[in-house]
UniProtKB/TrEMBL annotation:
This is 3-dehydroquinate synthase. It comes from the Bacteria. It catalyses: 7-phospho-2-dehydro-3-deoxy-D-arabino-heptonate = 3-dehydroquinate + phosphate. The gene is aroB. Pfam families: DHQ_synthase (PF01761), DHQS_C (PF24621). GO terms for molecular function: 3-dehydroquinate synthase activity; metal ion binding; nucleotide binding. Residues 68-180 form the 3-dehydroquinate synthase N-terminal domain.
Length: 361
């Protein structure tokens, strides 16, 4: 097992990464003196796979265990699921001495975190992320949210977990397409922050896709280190944290225009990263050789390269509604070579994207 800390003063917490860690949960909870009453939150796909393991080890260690099982999928990241959690808590007379534990992917983690932030004005919570995306991204950093019918993640809070326990063995049951989608965010960390890690991924993407444990642990750990460092500097996204949105400006447009669920988030990010790299090359922030390496790594991870044919006008409209737009000016994260990135204002988005989306010679 490997560990790191997200350094946020009194709200600092540990992330442990390893294999077979789920059953270590009771020991960690005891060490942190967290409440002995635990509400586990999972979903209909993950619960049959892992919930009883977690329930049994907690019960064996004298914890009082309750559980809620939400419907699966992004469509359930809504007020109804949140209410399902609140209702279970209230019906079971849970007071502030209750720990919420999220067991699942990013959807379960985000909803559970928001429930923890708001139930009785805040109860402690722990993340047991089971998808690659949740392990390298959503479980770390304290962004919690649910969707609103008018938009994704519009209702939420910054609320940090007390512990993140990452068991890479859970990835064995993750569908291959979801694994690849998680790898898009993994590649992102290499491009924006760590050239050595990017090179390591070029060497080992096949090991990761074959779910070889030591490689998974290494990759998850390196991503969490990068995210933890960014979050420790900029918890509430005033500056540096925005760099984590590399590939997401165009990615969000693809996701939204294709309809959520058609293209997975990570797939959209992969296509968005390639567009960003092509724009960076045209702005002389990186070389064509860097674009080529990014393209090859995306392909090696089983991710799509070519965005679906969408109207440029529709894409621009979505991008200009993005959170990073100020006074009508589009800003996006561009890579500087490989291993570094910056936020750049795009003076003429129409022209820039027309070029970036044009078929390559
Ligand atoms: P998800 O939670 O929907 O999981 C993807 C699918 O895999 C689901 O069907 C899930 O049930 C299933 N699954 C999860 N673990 C499994 C396992 N071990 N075995 C078999 N199936 C498993 O989606 P996701 O990609 O994990 O997360 C996406 C969500 O995360 C989005 O809602 C996004 O907004 C959010 N997110 C949040 C942050 C943040 O900082 N809070 C960052 C990135 C993404
Ligand atoms: Mg993302």
């Amino acid at each position: 097992m490997e560990s790191l800390t997200v350094g946020l003063g009194a709200r600092s917490y540990a992330i442990h990464v390893g294999a077979d860690l789920l059953t270590a949960l009771p020991d960690w909870l005891k060490a942190l003196q967290l409440p002995r009453r635990v509400m586990l939150v999972s979903n209909q796909v993950v619960a049959p796979l892992y919930l009883s393991t977690v329930e049994c080890c907690l019960a064996a260690a004298d914890f009082q265990v309750l559980s809620v099982i939400l419907p699966d999928g992004e469509a359930s990241k809504n007020a109804a699921s949140l209410e399902q959690i609140y209702t279970s808590l209230i019906r079971s007379h849970c007071d502030r001495q209750t720990l919420l534990v999220a067991l699942g992917g990013g959807v379960v983690g985000d909803i559970t975190g928001f429930a923890a932030a708001t139930y009785l004005r805040g109860v402690p919570f722990v993340q047991l992320p089971t998808s690659l995306l949740a392990q390298v991204d959503s479980s770390v950093g304290g962004k919690t949210a649910i969707n609103h019918p008018l938009g994704k993640n519009l209702i939420g809070a910054f609320y940090q977990p007390r512990l993140v326990l990452i068991d890479v063995k859970t990835l064995q049951t993750l569908p291959a397409r979801e694994l690849s989608a998680g790898l898009a965010e993994v590649i992102k960390y290499g491009v924006i922050a760590d050239a050595n890690f990017f090179h390591w991924l070029e060497l080992h993407s096949a090991n990761l896709r074959r779910l070889e444990q030591e490689f998974l642990i290494e990759a998850v750990l390196r991503c969490c280190r990068i995210k933890a460092a960014v979050v420790a500097e900029d918890e509430t996204e005033q500056g540096q944290r925005a760099l984590l949105n590399y590939g997401h400006t165009f990615g969000h447009a693809i996701e939204q225009l294709c309809g959520y669920g058609q293209v997975l988030h990570g797939e959209a990010v992969a296509m968005g990263m390639l567009v960003a790299a092509r724009i960076a090359e045209r702005q002389q922030l990186c070389r064509m050789e860097d674009v080529q390496r990014i393209r090859e790594l995306i392909a090696a991870c089983g991710l799509p390269l070519q965005p679906p044919s969408l109207s440029l006008e529709a894409c621009l409209e979505v991008m200009l509604r993005d959170k990073k737009v100020t006074a009508g000016r589009l800003r996006m994260v561009l890579n500087e070579g490989i291993g570094s990135a910056k936020l750049v204002e795009i003076a003429d988005p129409g022209e820039v994207f027309a070029v970036a989306l044009a078929p390559e010679l």
